[in-house]
Amino acid sequence: MRITKLTAMATGLVLVLAACGQQQTSESAGASGDSGGGDSGRGDITIEVVVHGQASDPFWSVVANGVEQAGEDLGITVNYRAPQSDDLDVVAMAQLIDTAVAAEPDGIIVSIPDADALSGPIEAAIAAGIPVLSINSGSDVFSDLGLLTHVGQTEFEAGVGAGERMAEAGVTNTICVNQEVGNGALDLRCEGFAEGLGADIPSEVVPVDLSDPTGSQAAIEAALSADDTIDGILTLGPTGAAPALLALEGNDAVQLATFDLSPEVLTAIDEGTMLFAIDQQQYLQGYMGVSIMTQFVQYGLLLGGGDVVRTGPGFVTQDTAAQVIELSSQGIR
User: Fold this and answer.
1) Distance, CA of 262 to chain centre
2) Is residue 319 part of a domain?
3) Which of 137, 97, 64, 83 is nearest to 286 (CA)?
4) What is the pLDDT of residues 131-168, one digit of tens each?
5) Domain hosting residue 50, numbered range
6) Measuring CA to CA, which residue among 62, 105, 108, 64 is closest to residue 82?
7) CB-CB neighbours of 88 under 10 Å
8) Residue 181's pLDDT band (cuts 50, 70, 90)
9) Residue 60's closest CA among 133, 111, 103, 6?
């Protein structure tokens, strides 16, 4: 069962591919004039969602599920766009934001992995009179860019929590595996991790290529071979966790934890081969992002008063993994 609905309105879902990115469109009966539930006027609201999520990353399919469900529940049209590249492609993302602005929607939702590259298109949207909020990446820059709010977790603080838990587990030397160096949110995770570990526990960033799992595994194995005192690894997403699990097969001396969830990550936690995963509840980022924007467009209401609306961090451990596995199978966790 999906998260409690804000408004009961039945809808349909259409999946479309955009020329330079993935686009999913969620439309309800309200979009054709039947607003349902006595909430007239909502059916003609259109929201564009432009995020950096790679097509190969299971994390972003859950964000998309939240976006789609919110569109259906609220009876509005939502277009979900993302670059098709397996690598972080802020040029394509900037183009997608420009395309969204040209469509003249009622609101735009973005992620901000690189504020320098995306500030121009975002500011153009605001200058055109289109309200903009951010989800997932951008908690540290959304206010400076003039956005309404940010929905997600504060990445540095989440990293601190990971470091503190690793330190409590007894690690003495660590690496932070970053699959998108230059993505501001991921960089903050590694920085927070080092802070949470404390001054006496070193942490080195190991960059890996998101689109090359074999090369990522080799890079992790090389780091472990170069320093046999490493006994803790933090990865920043499932695409980093998967090669780390392979690199650690048969190695019980190194403790592994990760940001974000996937079936493979949850199975590893349940079986005791991974210490924990940080759950930013990305379904809520998609769902609440659309809901907050809709309430602002329709009523001028803004949840949180412009501060970050936090969806995490939560921590999934062996004690809670079984329950989360069930929700993951439904595309919610």
Assistant:
1) 13
2) yes
3) 64
4) 999 999 999 999 999 999 999 999 999 999 999 999 99
5) 11-153+281-323
6) 64
7) 21
8) confident
9) 111
Q: Which two tokens stand for residue 135?
A: 């989800």
Looking at the domain assignment, is residue 332 inside a domain? Answer: no
Residue pointed to by tokens 């020329």: 19
Residue 305's CATH number:
3.40.50.2300
β-strand partners of 276: 257
* 132-135 sheet: strands from edge to edge: 11-18, 21-28, 77-82, 46-50, 107-110, 132-135, 150-152, 308-310
Q: What is the pTM for the complete model shown?
A: 0.77
Are 333 and 62 spatial neighbours (Cβ–Cβ below 8 Å)? yes
Answer yes or no: is 3 within a domain: no
Q: Which residues contact 255 (CB under 8 A, 6 or more apart)?
A: 166, 169, 171, 231, 232, 233, 275
Contact predicate 137/185, CB 8 Å: yes
For 158, the token pair is 């989440």
pLDDT (tens digit per residue) in 274-326: 999 999 999 999 999 999 999 999 999 999 999 999 999 999 999 999 999 98
Alpha-helical regions (H) of the chain: 58-74, 90-102, 115-127, 155-168, 184-197, 213-226, 238-247, 263-271, 282-299, 321-328
Residues 30 and 177 both lie in one domain: no
The torsion angle over the Cα atoms of residues 30, 34, 39 and 44, rounded to 10 degrees, is 40
The structure tokens 């049209």 sit at: 77
DSSP 10-26: -EEEEEEEETTEEEEEE
User: 74 CB contacts (<8 Å, ≥6 apart)?
Assistant: 6, 7, 9, 28, 42, 45, 290, 291, 294
Question: What distances in angstroms separate CA 100 from CA 79, 90, 116, 298, one per listed residue?
Answer: 9, 15, 19, 20
